[in-house]
Amino acid sequence: MARPAEQRPERGEAQEAFLDAAEVVFAESGFHGATTRAIAERAQANAALIHYYFGSKEALYEAVVARRAGAINDERRTRIAALHARGAVTLETILEALLRPTIALGRDPSRGGAHYARLLGHAASGTDERSRRLTGAHYNAIARVFIAEIAAIVPGLSPEDTVRGYLNAVAIGISLMAPTGRSQDLSDGALRDDDLEEIIGQAVRFLAAGIRALAKPPG
Amino acid sequence: MARPAEQRPERGEAQEAFLDAAEVVFAESGFHGATTRAIAERAQANAALIHYYFGSKEALYEAVVARRAGAINDERRTRIAALHARGAVTLETILEALLRPTIALGRDPSRGGAHYARLLGHAASGTDERSRRLTGAHYNAIARVFIAEIAAIVPGLSPEDTVRGYLNAVAIGISLMAPTGRSQDLSDGALRDDDLEEIIGQAVRFLAAGIRALAKPPG
DNA sequence: GTCTATAGTTCGATAGAC
DNA sequence: GTCTATCGAACTATAGAC
């Protein structure tokens, strides 16, 4: 390893430019469809530097994921802690703590997170080794946090249906992260992809009702 | 090793073998990650035949999608028509008509549909030209059918929220199509991936409650 | 129709100048 | 640290024997 002696090498602007560019290209084409040459071109840098900085295309991909997943899950934990501190824990506020960090990232052009949203969509639907390692490493721990929160706040919800409800929330969350224009198409332009508060509010209401319905006996 | 002449596939079966094999490999690795060699090996046939039968890797991919999407949407239309004929149209039965064909396909080992489910997951989260062409060509028409059905049966649901509800249903439907084992992981084994009626029943209940909640005024 | 062989590209990765 | 040049491998697709 030709790294400096420090354990955690500082990440300069060049590395960040590669991460930003890789996020876009991986999102557009998936892991295999993306090429290091395309990433370097978008980063306006030399392709050989990818291997110098990250070691391999695979390692670059994992760095892209780690950067966003870490920030998202840190914000989720902060929000959950704040809810407990304020005594404001409800199913709705828990769901908002789950969804807002991802959806807000996906709608903020200045942060380029819409690309990560699509990348995550690829990974969430993948069953290959890379995708499973990714979701396991970055999202299983936070999943258990939210499952515990939901179970504690919804009376009569079985452990199985708690997991079901959480996974439904995540499925909708991912589908809402990345604006695809499909909602605009299907509503003939009436539904806009960019009203953040409306999107989060309606998603929370939808999911809260769905989860509470699971807790009720059939009838 | 060459098979005996009497076991060699008849005319048409060779193409089906390629479609089956391609479905598996495309699902596992995505379009770019899949190779014609891997598809041919799984089909126990020669890779050059892919071009003889289908013209290109791209055309093979589209043939894989067309085969399943056509069958799924035909079944959906049949189910909707049957509901109207029986006078059994409710939000729940509409949602079941939407979800059952895909989820059942994904859980039926004899039909190999779990692979198509993963393939569709890739396409649904993709914004590349190929993915958009695919969803537009095969799923926009059926989407409008279901949006109209939902709007007609749920009082007070705005056109925008009807589209929202439909897209939420599709997002959850796709996430339920392919067993990923994640629900089993997160529930420590309590939630099983293979109980078809339980999965459909709980999904329908969840979605019906969510959609009806969108129709109610905030409060 | 089915095969072998290979053309023509393009890929990830690396060596080495500076 | 950053570049050019290039390697070896893998890819899709095709030509042509049979």
For the terminal residues of chain A, how far apart are their CA atoms? 64 Å
Specify which chain pair forms the largest interface. A-B, 57 and 57 residues
The class by helix and strand makeup of chain A works out as mainly alpha
The CATH class of the domain at 66-215 in chain A is Mainly Alpha
Give the integer mean of the pLDDT values of chain A: 90
SS elements, strand count of chain A = 0
Oligomer: homodimer
Number of helices of chain A: 10
How would you sum up the global shape of chain A? globular
Detail the poorly predicted runs of chain A.
1-8
CATH superfamily of the domain at 66-215 in chain A: Tetracycline Repressor, domain 2
Strand content of chain A is under 5%
Describe the sheet with the most strands of chain A: none
What is the element string of chain A, with H for helices and E for strands? HHHHHHHHHH
- The CATH topology of the domain at 66-215 in chain A turns out to be Tetracycline Repressor, domain 2
Tell me the radius of gyration of chain A.
19 Å
CATH architecture classification name of the domain at 66-215 in chain A: Orthogonal Bundle
Description:
The structure is a homodimer of 219-residue chains. Chain A is an all-alpha fold and 219 residues long. Chain A has a domain at 66-215: Tetracycline Repressor, domain 2 (Orthogonal Bundle), CATH 1.10.357. Helix content of chain A is 74%, strand content 0%. Chain A has helices spanning 13-33, 36-42, 48-53, 57-86, 91-107, 113-124, 129-153, 159-177, 182-186, 196-215. The radius of gyration of chain A is 19 Å and the shape is globular. The termini of chain A are far apart. At the A-B interface, helix 1, helix 6, helix 7, helix 8 and helix 9 of A face helix 1, helix 6, helix 7, helix 8 and helix 9 of B. Chain A binds a DNA duplex (18 and 18 nucleotides) through residues 14, 35-37, 45-52, 56-57.
